[in-house]
Design a protein that fits this description.
The complex is a heterodimer. Helix content of chain A is 30%, strand content 23%. Chain A has an eight-stranded mixed sheet, with helices on both faces. Chain A has an eight-stranded mixed sheet with strand order 18-19-20-15-21-22-24-23, sandwiched between helices. In chain A, helix 5 packs across helix 7 and helix 7 packs parallel to helix 8. The longest helix of chain A has 18 residues. By secondary structure, chain B is mainly alpha-helical. Chain B has 18 helices and six strands. In chain B, helix 3 packs parallel to helix 8 and helix 14 packs parallel to helix 15. The longest helix of chain B has 39 residues. The chains are: A alpha/beta, B mainly alpha. Chains A and B meet through helix 14, strand 18, helix 15 and helix 17 of A and helix 13, helix 14, helix 17 and helix 18 of B.
Amino acid sequence: MNTLLEIDNLKTILHTGNNPVRAVDGLSIKINKGETYALLGESGCGKSMTALSIMRLLPDSGEILSGSIKLSGEDILQLPETGMRRIRGKQISMIFQEPMLSLNPVMTIAEQIDEVLKQHFKLDNKSAQNRILELLGQVGIPDAQRRMHEYSFQFSGGMKQRAMIAMALAGQPELLIADEPTTALDVTIQAQVLDLMREIQQKNHMAILLITHDLGVVSEMAQQVAVMYAGEIIEHTSRKLFFAQAAHPYSQQLFASLPGKQKRFQELAVISGTVPPLSRQFTGCRFADRCNYAIERCHHTIPQWHEIADNHRVRCHLYDASAEFAEKKPLPEIIPKATAAAPQSQANGTLLQVNHLKVHFPIRKGFFKRVVGHVMAVDGVSLKITAGKTLALVGESGCGKTTVGKSILQLISPTAGSVRYNGYELVDMQRQQLRQIRSQLQFVFQDPYSSLNPRMRIIDIILEGMNALNVELPSTTKQSTQSNASIQEKAVDTLLEQVGLPGETKWRYPHEFSGGQRQRIAIARALAVNPKLLICDEPTSALDISVQAQILNLLKSLQNNLGLAYLFITHNISVVEYLADEIAVMYLGRIVEYGQIEEVIENPRHPYTEALLSAVPRIDKDAAETVMIQLKGDLPSPAAPPTGCHFHPRCPHAMPVCRQAYPELSTISPTHITHCHLYSQEKHSTHHEH
Amino acid sequence: MSFKPVILWTDALVFLLVFIISVVIWYVRNNPHLSAPWKRVGHSASGMSAFTVLLVFIIIGLLDTLHFRPALDHKNLQGETVYSVEVLSVLDVLVTPLRTNVEKTYSAPLATHLYAKETIDMPDGSQVRTFSRLEYGGSHLQNPETEHIPDIVWRITIGIGLGIFVWCLLHAVLCLLMARRSNSRFKQCIEAVWQRSTEIPWYAILITLAILSVLIGVISMLAVHYHVLGTDKVGQDVLYQSLKSIRIALVIGTLTTLIMLPFALLLGITAGYFRGWIDDVIQYIYTTLNSIPSVLLIAATVLMMQVYIETHPELFETIAARADIRLLFLCVILGITSWTSLCRLLRGETLKLREMEYIQAAHAFGVSHWRIITRHILPNVMYIVLIATVMDFSGLVLAEAVLSYVGVGVDPSMISFGTMINAARLEMAREPMVWWALLSAFAFMLTLVLSANLFADAVQKALDPRIRTNTPGNNGSKTHNKQESAAANSPVTTRPSTTAASNASVNKPTH
C-alpha cells in the first residue's frame, strides 16, 4: 500500500491554565492514497487539534511536543515555515466546519480562489480565471461564470461550503482535511455536499481525513475509521467491521445511545458523565470512569493495542488475550431499560390548537421605510397537540419552525390565525392576562450557551420564572416557620434533582457547566413554573451524541412522570423517530405532511418528506444501496416563494399543475394528510380538523 | 473657634458620593454572593497595587476637599471673630511651606538660583546681570556652588531612610493585624506575605507602598528647603500646583461621569430594548446633540454662567465659592455633552443582547420589562460602562485642559492640570525651555489615569463570572495572566475544560 500520510506518536499540548492540556496524546495514524479516513469522536477529544497539528496551524498556546508527521515520507514537522507554506493548500488543504466564517466577506469567491492559485502555480490571469471557472463547475455551482464574481454573503450555506471545497481543491491536494464539513448544514444539503466530496475524491484520487462526530456521515463516507477519545485513538478498523461489530465499549455505547425508531419504548443507553478534562494525568484507561465493563485493571493500567481481527485494533483490556478472564467475549449486551411501558394516553384532551397561523415579517426599504414585501416565515400553519403527547415539527433551517414555536408563545406576535390553549385564545391577549397562562407553556432553547444569563447564578435563573409568575410553592402552608428564601431554595433543589443535577450546583454560574448540564438547567427553569406544554427548539442539536441521549431520556421520563406535552422542533429525523407521537413536516412556512409517526416515517407521501427521510445518513445499511433522492438546489427565499406548490422547483415529480396552484389537502388516512398534487385533492377544503 | 468650615457645592457632592459608596460597601459586605466577586478584585496583583496608588490620590483629593476659613487675629467692631476671605483646605495646611514659599519667577527643580538672569544692584552701586539666589530654594546654603549637590544627596539619603522606616512600621502593623485575625504567629505572617501565599497579594501592595513611602520621604525631606519640581512664572511651587490639581481632576472625572451615566444608561438601554419609535426619538436626540460642536456648547454655557456670577456677586462669599460653582457647571455641561458616545455603545450592545435566548426565556416567563432591563441587560452591559467611564476619565481631564486653553475652563484662580498644561504652551516656546511644569502635570496625570485603568481592569475581570481569577497560593502571576487572556480571547476553546468538576471551588457561598 502506498502510504500518503503517516503520523507517529503525535503529542500536542495547549498551554492554558495551570496544567497544560494534552489535546493530542500519542496519536498514530496512517492514511493511504485515495482513501477516506474518518476520525470519530465527541467534542473535546482533540480531533480538531489533530487536524491543526497536521497543518501546523496551532493557536499560539499550542505546541507539538513530539512525534512525526510524514507526508509521502517527508517529515513536515522538520520543515521551515516557508516550506510549510508550499505544502498547505498544495498538498494538504482543509475545509472547516462553518462555511459562513471561513470565507472572507469582502472578497469575491474568484479572488479567494485566485489567492490559492497565485500561491502555488505560475498562472497568467486568463488561465487562472479559466481554472477558477473549472473548479467551480467541478463543485457544482450553477452559472459559475457569473457567480464567481459574487461575494460570499450572496451564496447560501450549501453553496458556501461548495465554494470552500473549490478553494481547497484549487491546489490539487493529495490530502483533504475536512473538519466537520457538514455539521452546520441541513440534511438535504449535507447529502449533496457528501455526494460531491465522494465524487471528487474518486475523480482526483485524493485522500480525505474526515473529522466528524456523526456516525451516519462516517458510514456514508469512510473506508477506515478511527475512534478518538480524550486525545488518543482507542479503536481502529475498516468501516465495515466497525459498523458490523464495534469492539471498544465506548464505540458500542455510542451506537447504543443513538436514538431511533426501534428504541422508541426504551430508554437510550447513556454514557454517564463527560469526556474527562485533558489537563489531568491518566493512570489507566481514559474511558474507565464512564465504562460499564470497567474492571479493576482499567483504572491503573494503561491498555495496549490488541489486534482482534485483520485490520481491527482496539485499545481495551477486555481484548487482552493473555489475560485470564473467564468470559472475555462476547461482551455483555447493553440491556436497555424499558421505560414504564408505552406511555398511555391519559385523559386525552386537546391541549393546544393552532389554526392558520401566519407570521409575516415586513421588508422595509427606503427613507420612509415603506413596506415593499413580506417574508412569509409562517404561512398558514395548523397544528394540534394532545396532552401528554409529542408533536415533532420537522424541516430544513429557514422553513419557519422556530417562528412557529415562538409565535405560539406570543414571543413573536402572529400576523393572523389563532392559537387556542385549553380554550383560551392567546393571539392578541393582553400582556397581563397572558402572564397567567405563561406558566402553562414554556420554551427550551436550542443553544444552551446563550439561553442562560452568564451573570446570574443558577438559583436566580430558576427562581426568576417562579417569582415573575408567582408560582405557588408546595410547602408554603406546612412550614410557615421557614423563611420564604429557604422554601424557594428547597424548591430549586427539587427541580435540579428532577433534571439530574445535585442541589448544591444552584450556587454556581452557568459557565461552570458543560453543554448538556446547561440544557438540563434550561429544562429545570422551564419546569419551575409547572408547565403543561414544553416547546423544545432543537434542544439537542448543539450537543454530542452521548449527551443528546441523556437529554432525550430526561425529556422522555419527564413526559411519563409529569404528563408533559412537547412540541419538538428539530431537523434530526432519528430523534423524531425516537420521541415523537405525531409529526408535521414543514416546508417554506407551510406544513406539507402531517400524521402519526409510523404513518409518515414508513410511508411518506409528499416528495419532500421522502427526500428528507432518504437524505438522512443511515448507519444500518451497507454502502449506498438505497437510492437517495437528491434534491436540487436550496430552500427558496420565504420572501418570494415559488408560485404554485412551493416545492415544485426542487421536486422530482413536478407536473405542470404544480407551477400553477398550491395543492389542496389530500387525506391519506384519518390521521395522515398531505398537500400534494400527486394525490387526490379535496375540492372544498373547509377548516380541516387536525 | 479658630476656623470656620466651608462646604462648597462640589464638596457637598463629593461627600454625598463618599456616603453612597460607603453604604454600597456596607450592603455588599452583608451579602455573601455580592461580596464574593468583589473579593476576587483583591486577588489581582496589578489591580491591588493600582488601587494603592489610587488610594493615595483619593486621600490627597479628600484632604483638599475639607475647606475652611481661618480666623484672623483681629476682631471686628462687634467683637466677633473675623474670618479670612481666603478659603483653605486641610491639604493647604499640611503643605504650608509649599504654598507660602513663593519665588519671583521660574526656577528649575531643586535649583538654588532663578532660571532667568536679572539685573541686580550691587551694594557699591554698580549693576550686575546674573542669576540671583532664590528667596527660599536652597537659602540655607552658605555656598551653593560647593554645598548644593552634597546637601541634596544627604537629604535624599535621609528621605529614603525615613521612607523605609515608615514602610517597616506599616509592614509590621499589617502583619500584626493579620496575625491577630488568623491566630497565627507574626513570623508566619511575614513568610506568608513574601511567599505570595496570602489570598490578597500583600506583597504587591507592600512593594507599591515601599515605592510610595520612599518617594514621599524623599520629597518631603527635599521640599523643606527646595522646590522639588521647580516654580512657575509667578514663582509658585509646581509640586503644590500638582497636588492641588488632583482634586479638580477627580471632581471632573467622577462628577461628570455621575451626571453622564443616568442619561447614557437610561436612554441607551431603552433605545436598544424597545426599538421602534422610542429608538428613533432617542437617536434623533443624541445625533442632534452630537452635531453641535461640544466646545461651542460648553463655551456658551460657561459664558452664560460667568455673566450670572458676575451680576450676582452677593451670592458668593468668597472667590473660592465663585470658582467652585463654575467648576460644578463645567462638570454638568461636560456630562450633558459627553453621554452620547456611551449611549450609542449601550444601544448597540442592548440590540444584540435583546435577541439573546435568555432574554426571550424571560419574556416567556412574563417577566416585566423593567426587571429584564435591570436583571438581564444592565449587568451584561456594565463592563462597557466601566471601560467607557475609565476611558472618559482621562478624556475629561484633557477636555478640561482644552477648555482652559479656550478660556472657558475652570476659573483662572483655580489650579488644575488643564491650566498647568495651558501655561506650558508659552513655557515650551521659551528659550531656554521651561519643561518641568508640563512634565509634572504629565507625570501626575499618567499615574492617576494609569492606576484608574488598571484598577478598573481588575474590577471588570473579577465581576465577570466567566473569567476565573487566581486561587490563592498555587501559581505565580505569569501563568495566571496567560490563562485569563486565553479565557477572554477564546471562550469557545476553553469551554470543554471548564466543566463543573474543574471549577467546583469558585463560587460557593460561605454559609
